[in-house]
Amino acid sequence: MAEIVIDTLKTDPSDIKLEKLKTLKFQMIGSHENKEIYFNQGLVEILFSMVSTELDDKILKEIITSINCYFFNFPQAQECFKFFSSTFVQMHFFLTTYKDSSPQFIDMVLRIIRNSLVSGIVKAKDFENQNLILELGTFLNTKVRISLIAQILTILCQSKDLKLEIEQNRQILEKILEQITKNQYIISDECLANCVCALAEASDKNQQISSFILTYPQAVDELTKHLRHPDNVMKVKSSRILSNINRYYKLPTLQQQQFKWVIMQMSQLLPVFQDDQALIKEICKIMRDLAKKSKERKHLQKVAGDILAIEKLTDLILTCKKASEEAFDVDAFIGDQPVLQSSFKSMILRTLAALSRDEEKCRKKIIENKKFLDELLQLIKSANKDQNYAACKLFVSLSRSDKMLKQIILDSGEFLKELTKFFLESDSEPKLQSTCCKALCNLAFDFQKQLSSDALLLRKLVLCIDGQNEELRVASCYTLKNLLFRCNKDIKIIVVKELTSRRLIQLMSDSNSKIQEQALMIYRNLLHQTEQDIQQVLSDGGDEFLAKLETKLDDKNQAIVLHSLYILSSIASGNQKQKKIAMDERFFNRCLQILKSTDSSQIKIGVLNYITSLAFKESGGSSESKIKKYLTDMKIGDLLESLKEKERDPEVRGYIQRALKKLN
Amino acid sequence: MSAQSNQAATSHLQDQDASKRTKYTLEQWEDRMQDIVISKDIINKLVMNYLIVEGYKQGALKFEKETGIKAEMDEDLIDHRIEIRRLLEKGQIEEAISKIDTLNPEILDQNVELYFELKRQQLVELIKAKKIDEALVFAQANLSQSFIKPTQSLQDSKSAYFKSELEKTMTLFMYEDLNGPLPASLQELADVKSRQKLASRVNQEILKAMGYSAELKLGFYWQMLQYSQNQLSTGENAIEFPKLKDPMGDLEM
Predict the structure, then answer these.
(1) Is Cell membrane given among the entry's keywords (chain A) (predicted)?
(2) Which of A129, A216, B73, B204 has the greatest number of beta carbons closer than 10 A?
(3) What is the pLDDT of residues B11-45, one digit of tens each?
(4) What percent of chain B is predicted at pLDDT more than 70?
């Protein structure tokens, strides 16, 4: 091969430049060896420096073609390309500038944009505010361009802004749908697949585009046919589109059954697809989307149990780890994990989390796999944030199990230690921190002693309540509440010491109603058990607390009213002095009013519990008649009448009868 | 029972089975076929598909005028395909490669096997033209280095395949007259038909790369016909009927 001298390429006259570039192109296409020779001479850098200065479209075409060559069978060039990512982005301007140039030039520009996106050199967000979608819409006139543009759109959909632009550009969507409905027998399999993939991404979480596909003539029928396509990618992508549409507009039952059946069939074949991570990720994504609706999730969990999907997914995590240990991986690394492998694992972990969310059988299968638990612990410890977030999410699901299963998890490794560590140290990762907090919250019921003995943890929980992240605030409150549930006195002392009654009272008026609820529930737990517990609460900011409690009885949020009633119930179950406090007119009259006016059975039961607690014989013997006398003085006739009226309600009848018995 | 009487018994049973089979005469079969109505529109589309895929541009345009079936073709692309096919069938491989690269440089960059076939054919043409020195240099520079040495992108198995194919091709150097009798494996290399075969393959790859289906529907349906005939004439419920064995022929019993 006669080597071309490339050092003077930039400064050569146009005709010589063009000839050299053409020869270079012919030498390099298909030849790894020649690509390497010129790469080592700095050809790529020279070509990129010429892109921004060259005006002749013929020469530009050759330059872009030669750069494009390096995307094929030459992975060494990828690192070099990263330095020129902005040049790749700017190449889209050629579409407008040279739109009347040779068709091959436009095709080449589209190819290089596609290749730069597919290889990850540029990201979708790099094309935001660049008018690219509008430009692409003007080039949908040949099949090859439609195919290229569909591939480009598939990746651009990762950007919300660009997806919005696609949504507004109906022309592009129409052209793509036309290929699927009218031209499906004329276009190549690859072109068809690219169009289906583009629609799958575009319609994901997008009601407008889903609606457009639904109403486009024959689109849904053709996609339903593709559920039986011999190519698995087509099957899965078509399922995805139908699943996306079904999210907003219920498809006919038959079509729903068909795409769900396809997904379950695909998930049955997961071990067969082991090498095709993209396909597995797609199947998992659809399963996760289906799992968001409880009815679908129940069905999915049942079928997943029948086809051993849980076992197959856990095996994939374990074999995926093995593969990455054995093979040399040229992909980029984050910490010690290859990037592509990590996003694959994250997807599987999240799918397992979705499936095991509220199904003990699924959880049990995962927990009983010791090897998987070991791997899960490693993933939680991993330096890859995406992976340890997904692993923590799965742990949150698993930690909803019964105590015995939870014990198995904790016995298998230092999960508690790691989760606590992440919770304490992940201030810069609020999503991860709140997920760890939720996991700790689920463990708090059964492992109170271990968790409450960690002063750092308690301090952190209290600090998080004062933070900015609402999700984390709520999760922290939940955790504290759980720590206090039926716990012993020592734990109560420790928690209150960190939280302080002053702060707790403030939380009763927090702007977030969920936090208000949790604060009330914390009080319920603090008041639980003995008179001493009640006394402890009432003696520490008791007046302020009772004043706040009174206002809570008038709250619009029924849950808050209910918890307030139970707090009163708890106080009313104490000694005479405590009963008197609970029986105070401001509370009693209000409860009576609530009983008369409410339709909610739960609220009625709350009031009845309060009354029953009041009427219970308090400790110390002789004061029973004093309470009843007091009740009589306070228009008990009214109360009895109200009670007898509500006795017809089957949900509260038992409670009323108990209250009446006590009052009599 | 002896083997002979076994065979006789089986044959008797088969005769009995054969006699129970439904049989159709040629006339009966043709009558049944008349009942199946295939719209002319479908037939015309099949023919149009053939003309477009094979690159008969003028034929397609005329057919479009006659039948009203739209020739869904990129005229520019057809012209390129016709030219590339012409160059390949004439043995002008280098020019054909240049045209392919101009049309879509990714075709050969992504398809190592096809690129090898083209380069190999170029070598064969040099050997046929008795340009031995040039052929040897060409083989060394274009085939040996590029396709045999395994690289990060070229797997060992592919590299081994290319090596064995190149070795096979190099044995052509031993024969003075490539038009004379050659071993079968070399005959297909040296034969002019190899150019046609390669041209057909390149045509298909171009169509696929440019977003068009390369499937000849007529070919597909022919295969389906053969399969259906085979299914009908075997098994428990087999029937006897006239078959179409040659696409250009008639029904035969």
Answers:
(1) no
(2) B73
(3) 555 555 556 778 899 999 988 888 888 888 888 88
(4) 89
Tell me if A32 and B153 make a contact (CB, 8 A cut-off).
Answer: yes
Report the pLDDT averaged over residues A381-394.
89
- Distance between CA atoms of A341 and A327, rounded to whole angstroms? 12
Distance (Å, whole) CA A280 – CA A350: 13
Q: How far is A69 from chain B (nearest CA, A)?
A: 7
CA of A106, closest CA in chain B: separation in Å? 11
- Which residue numbers of A have CB closer than 8 Å to B's CBs? 1, 25-26, 29-34, 65, 68-69, 72-76, 103-104, 107-108, 111, 142-147, 183, 185-191, 330
Torsions phi, psi of A548, nearest 5? -65, -40
Taking each continuous run of H as one helix and of E as one strand, the counts in chain A are: 42, 2
Contact A103 B103 (CB under 8 A): no
The larger pLDDT score, comparing residue A567 to residue A592, is at A567
Write phi, then psi, for B252 (nearest 5 degrees): -130, 145
Element (H, E) at A393: helix A385-398
Residue type present at position A90: Q
The number of distinct structural domains making up chain A is: 1
**Is position A611 within any domain?**
yes
Side chain identity at residue B91, one-letter code? G
Q: Is residue B159 part of a domain?
A: yes
Domain annotation covers residue B17:
no
Gap from B23 CA to chain A (nearest CA, Å): 36
**A654 in a structural domain:** yes
Cβ-based neighbour number of residue B117 at 10 Å: 18
Q: Does any domain span residue B23?
A: no
For residue B64, pLDDT beyond 70: yes
SS3 A195: helix
Q: Does B41 touch chain A (CB under 8 A)?
A: no
| CATH number of domain containing A648 | 1.25.10.10
| Residues A637, A638, A641, A646, Cα dihedral to 10° | -140
Contact B105 A31 (CB under 8 A): no
Domain hosting B144: range is 75-211
pLDDT of residue A159: 94
What angle, rounded to 10 degrees, do the helices at A455-465 and A415-425 form? 40
Interatomic CA distance for residues A191 and A350, integer angstroms: 31
Helix pair A309-326, A253-268: axis angle to 10 deg: 40
CB atoms within 10 A of CB A555: 17
Res. A501: pLDDT tops 80: yes
CB atoms within 10 A of CB A139: 19
For an interface test with A, which of B69, B112, B213, B217 has the most A Cβ atoms less than 10 Å from its Cβ? B213
Of A104, A186, A189, the CB nearest to B102: A104
Give me A199's structure tokens: 């629609």
Q: Residue A100 — very low, low, confident or very high, per pLDDT cuts 50/70/90?
A: confident
* A75 and A51 Cβ atoms separated by less than 8 Å: no
Which range of residues forms the domain containing residue A543? Answer: 530-618+625-664
Q: Extract the tokens encoding A64.
A: 């872009």
Under 8 Å CB pairs connecting chains A and B tally to: 88
Is A223 a member of any domain? Answer: no
Q: Indicate the number of domains in chain B.
A: 1
